[in-house]
Every structure is written in structure tokens, then in C-alpha cells.
Amino acid sequence: MSTPLLVALAALPWVLVPVVILWQLSKSKSLDEYTAEPPANPPLVSVIVPARDEARNIEACVRSILTSTWPNFELIVVNDHSTDGTGDIARRIAAEDKRVRVVENPGLPDGWFGKQWACHNGALAARGTILLFTDADTRHTPKLLTLAVNAMRVRGADLFSVAGSMVMESFWEQLLQPHVITLIIARYGSTERLSRSTDPYMKIANGQYILATREAYGETGGHEAVRSHVAEDLRLAQEWCREGYSVQMVAGFDWLSTRMYHGFGELARGWGKNVYAAGRDTLPLGRVGRAALRLVFPLPALWEIVPAAVAIAALFGLVPAAAGVWGAICYSASVLYWAIVHFMMRAPVPLALLHPVAAVAMFGIFTRAAWKGERVEWKGREYISR
User: Fold this and answer.
1) Tens digit of pLDDT for each residue in 64-107?
2) What's the angle, vertex CA 151, arms to CA 347 and CA 253, rounded to 5?
3) 3-state class (DSSP) for residue 252
4) Which one of 162, 187, 212, 289 is most buried, counting C-beta atoms within 10 A?
5) Model pTM?
6) Directed axis angle between helix 3-25 and helix 321-344, to 10°?
């Protein structure tokens, strides 16, 4: 077999894998396909916002929810022992709008993560037949809730989540967020594939926006059933699927947005707490499998690093020229792929050239996460993710 043919065959995975990922993504359903008109007798929706030290976000989040065209909803802010004025801001808005209530979260019991405890107590205070759990760093367009509830009811979902767009302002956000989000897409495929599957390991939800029927929430134990897991959205989706409930997701990029983290430090801490401790639950692994996962978990980042490194090494005569050609082909294919992803996610397209830098950063974040294992730290609290 000739050298050029060998090089082409060796580069094929770097060409085909991105094509498959983009093809899967194109099969997703969007909220745009559903009506934005409320039904004649709209059920009461209880919107629950857990908030711990969210002073920079809570007002914009709450006021965006209050613009909703859904005519029958209440908004419950669960102030989770904030020390930055979050509660004061929420109470001021509640004094202006009777749809808003502020619940002070009780002390955190042993074995609970803070978010789950706040969501649990918000649900206890809620009066609606539909519950919406949404994060304080989200921004809601006026038609979002109407579109989402209508889609949920048409599709017959018990748990229904919306995948929104990422707001990315700093260099590291724009460089890294597309990589992490795309890694999740590569694992699960389109929203329709996820929604149709009956395999719990093919289920995930977006904790930034989860709608649930009150009846199913009570029957499954709600957030109490996943109280000790770092990724409560993933485990909710899996457990509800195991119990025979319909778990679905659609895309809502034009209707929901979130700025998850500000800068590299928050990115590293935020994804670092989730990627390994939650990643263990995405595969049916026994004790041996979990031990092996800890060793190999960071390795997928090398997929983006090796071609660029080989191409550079060839320039200095450290590897054969054929290896350099392979590296250049794979790097170029990856640049094209990441340019498309960055365009779709509204991130600067030229940053696609730096995808190996993003991979190096991800390798570091993933290695640290695997080393920490089930130990999780977030917002001044330490947990063990079961």
C-alpha cells in the first residue's frame, strides 16, 4: 500500500467523526416548531429558581421570566444562604410583583447537594401542576415558557428540558465552551435521538431549564431521589427513564441563553466539578470500569492535540514528512469542523485555529477532575458525589 494512501486512511477518522457529529446535530428538534399561543385554560406553572450568591444574575434572570407570555405562573426564588445580597434583590422584586415569592432555604442536611435541596424546598412551596426548575444565570425570552409548555404537552413528556445558547464573552469562554458542549453532543447525538431512546444511559437533561409534571415529580421522589449526585439533571433524566416516564429535550437556542461561567477560573472549577463525577454515570460501569475510567478519562483530549503536535514536529525534522502531512490534514479538517461549530454557537470563528490550545486546557481540567474523583467543591461547600 502506497504512503499517500496510508496517510489518507490514517486521517479518515479526523474527517468522518466531525461529519457524523454535525449530521447528528442537524436531526434535533427546535421549539420553533411549536405554537407560541397559550391554551384556553393554561395550567399554573411554578417557576423555581435556586439561587446561592447570584447577585450578579438574579435580577436579570427574574425580570426576564416576568416578561413571559404564559398567562398563569408563579415565580419562586429560593435564596440558598446567599451572602452577596441575592435575597435582598429578590425580595425587592417580590415587593413590586405579586407573582414573585422568596423562600429562604433551610440549613443543608447531610447527604444533599445545595442545588437539589433548594429545588426540593422550592417544589414544596409551589402550587403549580407544572414545575419549571431554571438556573439564576439563565435569560428567558417572553415566548419561551409558552413554547416549552406547549411542546411538552404535545409531545406527552413527563420531564422536558430545553437546550439553550451559550453566552461567551471572555477569550477562554469562547475557546473552551464550544469544545465541552460539543463533547456532550458527540456522546448523545441529536435531541430526537435522546428523546426517543428508552435506554437510561442515553438520557440527559439540561439543568438550566427543566419542566416536570407535578404528578411525576412526586411519584419519582423529585430532587430527593438524586440528592447526592453532582449532576442532578443527568440523574433525574436517567431515573425517570428507568421508571418508565417520558424524558425529552428540544433545542431552544433563540429562546433561552445562559452565561455559565465568567473567565478561565470559573470554567475550570465549574466543569471540573462535573465532568468526571458526573461522567461516571453516563456509562454502565462496574467497580473495575470506574477505576479504569479514572485513568483514561483525560485521554480523548489528545485527539485534538496529537495532529498539531505531529505537524509541528515534522517542520523541525523530528518525525517523517509523511507523518507531518498526516498531521496537517487532520489539523485542517479539525479547523474546518471547529469553524462550523464556532459559527453555530456564535463564537469567533478564527478561534477554530486554536483548537489544540483548547484541547490542552481540557486535558488539564479533565485530569484534575479525575484525580479529585467524587470529591466536589462549589460555592463554598464540599460534597461527595455518590
Assistant:
1) 999 999 999 999 999 999 999 999 999 999 999 999 999 999 99
2) 5
3) coil
4) 162
5) 0.93
6) 10
